[in-house]
Amino acid sequence: MVDTKTISPEALLQITTALNIPMHSLVAVIGLLDEGGTVPFIARYRKEATGNLDEVQIRAIEENRLPARVGESSRHDSRVHRRAGQAHRRVEGQDRDDV
User: Fold this and answer.
1) Structure confidence by residue, pLDDT tens digits, 36-78
2) Nearest residue to 53 (alpha-carbon basis) of 5, 3, 15
3) 19, 23, 26, 28: CA torsion to nearest 10
4) What are phi and psi of 52, to 5 degrees?
5) Is residue 82 situated within a structural domain?
6) Reported confidence tier of residue 83, pLDDT bands at 50, 70, 90
7) For residue 82, what are the domain limits?
8) Helices 9-19 and 55-98, interaxial angle, to 10°?
9) In the chain, is it the N or the C terminus that has fewer CB atoms within a 10 Å radius of its CB?
């Protein structure tokens, strides 16, 4: 289903609140979209999984899931860059001590 490493629980909660849909429906729709399902297909043939969400609701989830992932990715990238910079400064400091 949803890769929780990709979308934080906080982002999921924010989407459910903004769209006023149950969490289980959100998770199901994101999983179906990630598997390649289209909005019309999910709305018509996966009603039991989505809790009977309509195309408009599913489209709103589709539009909101990517920014949530981008936000997570950019935060992750900034942490990685910050750690790399810290490691680089430590190595430079060791080089200076050796001289």
Assistant:
1) 999 999 999 999 999 999 999 999 999 988 777 765 544 444 4
2) 15
3) -160
4) 65, 35
5) yes
6) very low
7) 9-98
8) 150
9) C
